[in-house]
Amino acid sequence: MTHILTVIGARPQFIKAAAVSRQVARTSGLRETLIHTGQHYDANMSDVFFDELEMIKPTHHLGIGGGSHGAMTGQMLEAIENLLHIERPDVLMVYGDTNSTLAGALAASKVGIPVAHVEAGLRSFNKNMPEEINRILTDHCAEFLFTPTTTATRNLLREGLGVSRIVESGDVMYDAAVLFGQLAKTKGAGANRLGLPSSGYVLATIHRQENTDNPARLAAIFKGLEKVATEWPVILPIHPRTRKKLETAGLSSALSKLITIDPVGYLDMVGLERGADIIVTDSGGVQKEAFFHKVPCVTLRDETEWVELVEAGWNRLVPPDSDTCIAEAILAAFETSGSNIEPYGDGNAAEKIAAALKVIS
């Protein structure tokens, strides 16, 4: 029996883990224990995901959230290392590119436990992003590299990571979209349930550090969204950290022109995405979710890991330096679409991951 110890801590990881854990539970010869680091500790960004996605509950909740990157990662590393000695898993599994990801990978590699990295091989090629450092270091710690795309596989091979360590599984986010998209529709999740406009709106999510911690970029983004809001309703589920940064920068008044709501659960987010005319984001996961639901996307970043969506025309990459350029790009994206591509597999990534991990013991 292969014992998998899984480390998660942030919203995108809950979604990915929901798909994989479901497959692990139905695969004989596998058992899983879950650690929640607490990186996303708000109930609307944590607890609700476990409930509505019917995930297994964490056996261990570390309660480590907030603080600097170094402090957070160090506390997580120490706590996870202690749990590794208690649980004695056959493999430690991590997702994506957060501090929780890196802490889990470092802790396991230092005590000789194999690391499995789901969503391996993504590269923005911008090492100023904390996420880029996290994903590179995690990939080089890992024995099992589950890549979502051919591009990700090529990135790992270029870095000298052997093909024997790589499984091109496809994207577990696509698995989740297939699993939960219809459920969101059946439950009426999204704008109607939340008392919001049911169509003809822009959905925006802004949380990434290079945007929220830079007052000039933050101002450009929210002034750009204000301009768009004179023509179309802009719905913004606002991340607590983003709200705080707006207050600190003296930009809170920008929110008055937008429809701001607290962070929502996954099913309501899926419903909002499906009903939107445009999605504006700096989130890697939301870029893909926009594509899954065939909604044009504008990404407010200098680069993206999901280059195939830009190349296919589903995503517009707009550096957030000018509010005018941001507004023009958003308005230009209405009623557009990209080419017919299928870069993320066929919805059975979780099955491939479970099959690869089963052979460990």
Q: What structural class do you assign from the helix and strand content?
A: alpha/beta
Largest sheet: 7 strands, parallel
Q: Largest sheet, order of strands side by side?
A: 3-2-1-4-5-6-7
Report the portion of residues in β strands: 5-15%
Backbone CA Rg: 20 Å
What is the number of helical segments per DSSP (H or I, 4+ residues)? 16
- Uncertain regions spanning at least 5 consecutive residues: none
H/E element sequence:
EHEHEHEHEHEHEHHEHHEHEHEHEHEHH
- How many strands appear in the DSSP assignment? 13
Residue share in helix: 40-55%
- Termini separation comes to 6 Å
| Basic shape | globular
Overall mean pLDDT stands at 93
Brief summary of the model shown:
The protein has 361 residues and is an alpha/beta fold.
Could you explain how this protein is built, in words?
This protein has 361 residues and is of the alpha/beta class. It has 16 helices and 13 strands. The chain has helices at residues 11-25, 47-52, 69-87, 99-110, 130-141, 150-158, 172-186, 191-194, 209-212, 215-229, 240-248, 266-275, 284-292, 307-311, 323-332, 349-358, and strands at 2-8, 30-36, 60-61, 91-95, 115-118, 144-147, 166-168, 202-205, 234-237, 259-261, 278-281, 297-299, 315-317. The strands form 2 sheets. Strands 3-2-1-4-5-6-7 form a 7-stranded parallel β-sheet, with helices on both faces. The chain has a 6-stranded parallel β-sheet with strand order 10-9-8-11-12-13, with helices on both faces. Helix 4 (99-110) packs parallel to helix 5 (130-141). The longest helix has 19 residues, at 69-87. It is globular and about 60 Å long. The chain starts with a strand and ends with a helix.
